[in-house]
Amino acid sequence: MFFVAGSKRSGGAARGNEKSMYQKFRDVDILDKKKTVTALKPGEDRAILLGLGMIISSVMMYFVLGVTILRSYADSVWTEEGVCVVLNSTIAADVNCSYHCGPDCWRVSRYPCLQIYVSINNTGRVSRLSHNEETHDASSECFFVPKCQKEMGVMQAMVVNISERLKANQQISCYYNPSERQHDTVLLSRLYGNTAVFHSLFWPSCMLTGGTLIIIMVKLNQYLSMLCEELGKVHK
């Protein structure tokens, strides 16, 4: 009887030790899983916030660039590119301008008005050349409107340098209005051309695509984790 009781006690103690060891391993396994879940959750939240931030930023970029670059590009009538031959380049007169000299302080200065006349595509028609759309809106008579400064000599040297460069290059690329028969005014360059429009659409699109892909990958990772967990419960 003593041996039987001793064997039962030893067997029960062994089974108790096995249960306690199994419970310890199970607790450690559950703790590791909880640590993994808590470590992954903040990372997933940060990734989703990053994706949402990229999407919102791309939408704002679309709005800002659409109001500035795309609108100016669409409103411009000088869409046809041609070859202009410089016929005459002269400084007609001095134009008054004002520059900022401090708080509530404005002073008057003068800059030379450079007038350039060209012929488009060897048609013989004489047209006035402007630098871009802003220059044409600011002064339709002058080719270039420099930033007003106190030193008149600096602005005069800038205008003379531009005149000498245009005289050296007799044939230049220019833009004209195809719907205008007389072509009174042509542009040397467009304020926003095809390259600017491409970049204004390409980079926000890349940011929008990247943010969307980040969110899709995070959601796919969460779905696969839930699927693996359900499969594990089925096998158990």
From TrEMBL:
Subcellular location: Membrane
Key words of the record: Glycoprotein, Ion channel, Ion transport, Membrane, Transmembrane, Transmembrane helix, Transport
InterPro entries: K_chnl_Ca-activ_BK_bsu, KCNMB2_ball/chain_dom_sf
Main localization, broad class: membrane
Transmembrane portions of the chain: 47-70, 196-218
Any GO BP: detection of calcium ion
Membrane topology: Multi-pass membrane protein
Any single Gene Ontology cellular-component annotation: voltage-gated potassium channel complex
One MF term in the entry's GO annotations: calcium-activated potassium channel activity
Protein name, as recorded: Potassium large conductance calcium-activated channel, subfamily M, beta member 2a
Gene that encodes the chain: KCNMB2
